[in-house]
Structure prediction request, 1225 residues.
Amino acid sequence: MNKRENKSESKRHFKVCHQNLCIHQINFQKQSFLVSIDSLDGFVELHVISQRDDLKRIKLNAKQLRVFRAAILYTDDNLIKDCDFTYSDPSLDICQSENKRNLDTFSGSHSSVVQSVDPDRGNGELLVEVPEDIPEIVSAVKERTVIRLHIDFAVERPKGGVQFVVPESDGSLAERGAHMFTYRYENSNRLWFPCVDSYSEVCTWRMEFTVDLNMIAVSCGELIETVYTSDNKKKTYHYSLSTPTCAPNIALAVGPFEVMVDPFMHEVTHFCLPHLLPLLRDTCGFLHEAFEFYEELLSSRYPYTCYKQVFVDESYEEFQSFATMTVLSTNLLHSRHIIDQTYHSRRLLSHAIAQQFFGCFITMQSWSDAWLSRGISAFLASQYYKKAFGNNEYRFDLYQQLQEVIQYEQKYRGVVLDPTKQSSSETNAFYFPIKHLHTISPLYDSAHKKKSYLVIRMLENYLGRELLLQVFNKLLSLAINAAPQKFSANVWFNFMISTNSFVWAISTVTGKNIDTFLQQWVYDGGHAKFHSSFVFNRKRNTVELEIKQTDTHMTGVKKYVGPLVVTVQELDGTFKHPVQIEDNMTKHDLTCHSKSRRNKKKKIPLCTGEEVDMDLSAMDPDSPVLWIRIDPEMQLLREVVLEQPDYQWQYQLRFERDVMAQMDVIHFIDRFSTPQTRNALTDTINNEQCFYRVRCAATLCLRKVANQMASTWTGPPAMLSIFRKIFGSHSCPHIIKLNNFSKFQHYFLQKAMPISMAGLRNIHGICPQEVLKFLLDLFKYNDNSKNKFSDNYYRAALIDALSETVTPVVTAVLNPIGQQITAEALSTDTKCILEEITRYLNLDKLLPCYRHTVTVSCLKAIRHLQKMGHLPSNPMFFREYAVSGVFIDVRKAALKALIDITKSEVRKEDLDFLLDLVENESIPCIRLYILKQFGKNPPFVKNQQNILNTEDLVDRLWHLMNSQLSYDSSIRCAVVDLYYALYGRGRPSCLPKPEFSVVLNLKEKKATVSTALVANDDLETLESSARMDMDVEDNINESKETDESFNDLEIVPKRRTFDEIINDTKLTREREKSPQSAHEIQLSPQTTAPEVNESVAETVSEDIDMTSTSHNQSLPELSSDLTTSQMPSTATPMTSEAEATVNPLKEKSKKDRDRDESGGHSSKPHKDKKKKKKKHKHKEHKDKHKHKHKDKDKDRDRDRQDRHHSHDRTASSGGSTNTSPVKYT
Prediction:
């Protein structure tokens, strides 16, 4: 295999060896930066080398830019030749057809549009014509020398790629902390300067940025000099990046930053906004340790000469890595008094440094190779995470990421890391194209990153840690050696990593072939799922293990063939047994190395080498097996469902030292609600040697077990005595000690246990009074005066626990239906809960805590009280916290509550408010957050009858993802996710049913339904009735008759507004109260609707398709515990009498009613004759067809006859009798 196989060389007819970027003016008021068109000092200059003798045009990438001029400099005197250029951005409007509102059509158009401007395919939005009348230019093209292409451009009020943050307050821009920075979703730097926006096009860079005197410009590369203007009002920063770098890895940040040079590494510089320097010191104090760790791990020095960290506000992501610099969120900054944020921030900051090695210095060659740069950088970051926080933290994080990937794949489909070898039918299984970076779902993208890391870690087990690190060193060495060399496509190709080059490096270093591994886990999606059970054979002293793969038909699950490791913990130690999986069900005999003991106590050796005392009274006296584990080192992407007795789970929880094994037990053991399980979980919580995350998870598991044992539980509530024993005062256990978080394990346990206890329920489904009093005492006696760490996360956890105690059962008893929710109607306990939440909410406004964690928990608690019926729903309360200017974490909590209210109470006003934010919000991450939360909790689901399910919503979402989000493909794809959650892949059911057509295939003599305009539920029925083998001549003859009868059919119903529907519904209710309609009228498909409410029934039936049964599901259910509150005008419920007037099917057309009134005959006899003639003709056609093909198989003729007869019956059963396969209605 040739490592230097460049996929993009044959598609792009030129190479860029150097680029100059010069920006002279940045206007914060107008939120734009301009490049002068009058001076050549302000430009983008690309040094282009032709790869063919007749280069006629150069295609570049440019979005939302105003391009003023394109010119080529030639000769040493810098003579200028203006070039003709054209600009076209097809992503501004994906689908040209407005009536095809299904995702299959959109996905096909989306993929085509993205490919049409894909630089890896030699395409782009900006096309520059190369002059052919200048000999010097023609000669440079033929001789493959440098062509200097100048482009003058401007960016005004960019919608994406550049974020201007200008706080509204008094003072100058610097005093207000105004700043700007660039961001990107993968390769999208075309949004702020013209370039070849591809990871596979690397070149050297020189950049100049002119800013105000009190501003600092931070960019990639090394700062060469800073030049001040003659009037001393502006200054220009000159940066040089001599290491070949691709355009997507270039960034810029401008602001009144405070600067801190790292005291341990002078080549590292940190930048933050004013007044945040103390937090910057505490957050970045460890960074030199991460650099040293990576250099030692990879046996290679840091590849750049400098490194810069810039902390900004309103960042697109928590961090984004660029060449020699990283743009991070200010929310990652923390003081040394914050515990929880330290774990998160250090992990992200160390990951950003790892991406400097793989991701910036060595980039992916194309999207199909992204799994390598993503996976390797995440693998390196996990190694530092293990070094900094321990092996248990590392393995717990590994376990969590595996579970998240499994959940995604089982809900959607398997994640394919490299889709190049996927067939079109396999890629079409997704509702979005997976072969391009800018068309995939954000959820898929997140799962792709996690799975990439998991697969690289599997390679560590497959090759060995040392060999894998040697492969990384080989790749880095080739790139470092190529950095100082002049432009050469074969040399600079070492800065890119592809699947082929990675396989070449592994083969060169290790001599191993990983083709089978790649086929299983890289070129194909999904994971394995094993169902295992075993019995001990006493006579043979073996374990008979059975492993099944019975769920291969499930979404995201595939059949695995290959080796598998099974470990058996016996009385004499831990023994590994490699087995081979070949079929869906395999049986294996595992020889035991121990013999059973009867009432003999002896220390049991564990896998770690330690020996422990065990009480063996609970185990089977005839079996030496304590427990069994399948794939203990997680060498596969798999889910294991293991069946073993409860005592073996309990032994494994108590004595197994692996975190992943203990977490497996916690996920399975709650099925055994016994006193023994209770004791095992209690011992785990009490065990100081157990990992703190396992202890916290055990508290939640014990809560489930305790609730299942509520009728037989004895003693105090679960975990209450444990908490008082660890954290209570010695003299008075019910009074908690002063906070002391110096022991982090106790700190996290102290946060987790109150939340777990709050979920306890007695036999009546109510939180025990003792637990509620205990939680209120925690608020009362909480004292952090002598604690050196902040207690903001602890107080937030207490509020979460307090809200968890509220149940709807209490509300049903205290608030009968019809009673308004007032303070007097609340119970004493609820009043206490509400007072504590209100007090902490107001206190956090006066004395804000770190990241407003208390306010976030208070908002969640208030929403929970509303859902339980203790408080009336008040969306305006959450809207006040969701507006711009509020801290971002608080906004997200309020937005999540509003999304929940929109779904549960079917509020159109809130849905419009949220969609307005998606369209107009200035912070991109907020827009993306709203769409992701909508995807997780949609206001309705596919084909559900709901007031919100309207044609207006379809139009709005379609317009949003089709033509309003060309500048941010991530947000556009998030809208696609929401559209899929609401309507599926087909045409939304709320739209009017248009005509559909049958496509005639003259070659195969078949007719197939065109499903572009058909709803999901109708696809199978229509296809089965329309895919019939017919003679082509008969199809053409019948199509003529169809055109005549089809013109009289009314297809599209009258459009009505939402308010008109509601008003007509109210009118119907008033009419139903009259004596004429005192009795209910039951409608059936054979009866017609009453004349009185015909317009209302037609409107409701055609526009929102609401039946008497589904209507009850679409409105918020008022349970007996909720008091009546004023319903919004858009959700006025109909009475049962009004429901009776709604036809469960669509209203019949006037022609159908006339036919029913005339005894089943049509009121237009001339049409009836035509239909009879057509039926007669169709029968003659069948006889002729059978005579023609009498030599064919009899079964096939019988099937064809059945299909024709079924079609005749359908055509003659009351609707249109059209038998032609050309058009249907």
Notes: DSSP finds 40 helices and 37 strands in the chain. The two ends are 57 Å apart (CA to CA). The mean pLDDT is 82. The first helix runs from residue 103 to 116.
